[in-house]
Amino acid sequence: MPQAVVSIITLVVVVGALWLFLTRTVIGRGFSVPLRTVLRRSETAEYPEKPRPVAPRFHGRHQLNRYPDGLEKCIGCELCAWACPADAIYVEGGDNTELQRWSPGERFGEDYQISYERCIFCGLCIEACPTRALTMTHEYELSERTRADLVYTKDMLLAPVPPGGKDTPHLDREVRTRGLNYYGGLAVTPPTLHGGDYQQASNAPSARAGEVLPTGTPPDTDLEPEDPAVVGAENVLRSRHAPGGSEHPRTRREQPEEER
Predict the structure, then answer these.
(1) What is the topology classification, in CATH, of domain 62-157?
(2) Which residue, 60, 59, 64, is CA-closest to 74?
(3) 3-state secondary structure 111-174
């Protein structure tokens, strides 16, 4: 056999054995990592002078957002705290008043704390937030000297006041005169409660928001409300308000033996 053919066969066998070693064995796969990168050009990041940009959906420090007029989006529902798997969030809600309004709803986040000693930056808290009040920024420089400094309070997480807005708290009458629609769903309450009609929020811009606010007189609170979702609710109300009617909807025939 010619010497050239022997050399080619030997080279093929050696290359095949090396390829099997690098792809089929644990030690070979470990060696393949530096072999793949040894010929690449080295890349040096000038941190912290020139930090590298992060991915668009990077999970960094949290932020409590505001509406354009300065009202806080957090309503103190504590859903973010319940969704946190590391128990890193503490929320305590408070009630809005006519003289001190912090959010458009009935309640607001009076005390808000996040412990970055526990936080795993999973993003479940921002998924659970119903008003998009809590989001995550691209800030990742969170090193501190003590554990206590890793607990961020509400004043540290709250976003700055937008241009043209006003810092909280606001007066209730000021918020009403703005005519802003703070919610993304239906613009009014059901017409059976406060009058008005259903209109989508997209059809109610801020200039016309006052036209779709609930109007009319509230119902009489002495009347017992009727819930159509309850089976037999109509018969219950009829039997209660009928002259000489019994308060219990069941007849004597339907009553158990022990009640007769």
Answers:
(1) Alpha-Beta Plaits (3.30.70)
(2) 64
(3) EEEEECCCCCCCCHHHHHCCCCCEEECCCCCCCCCCCHHHEECHHHHECCCCCCCCCCCECHHH
What are the structure tokens assigned to 49, written together?
């002078």
User: pLDDT tens for residues 64-117?
Assistant: 999 888 999 999 999 999 999 999 999 999 999 888 999 988 899 999 999 999
Residue 72, class by beta-carbon neighbours within 10 Å (0-12 exposed, 13-18 middle, 19+ buried)? buried
Confidence tier at 210 by pLDDT (50, 70, 90): very low
Q: pTM for this structure?
A: 0.58
Beta-strand relationship, 62-64 and 134-136: antiparallel
**Which two tokens mark 56?**
């668009």
CATH 3.30.70.3270 in the chain, residues? 62-157
Cβ contacts of 185-194, under 8 Å, gap ≥ 24: 187/212, 187/213, 188/212, 188/213, 188/214, 189/214, 193/218, 193/219, 194/218
3-state secondary structure of 234: helix
**Phi/psi class of residue 183: alpha, beta or left (left: φ > 0; alpha: ψ in -120 to 50)?**
beta
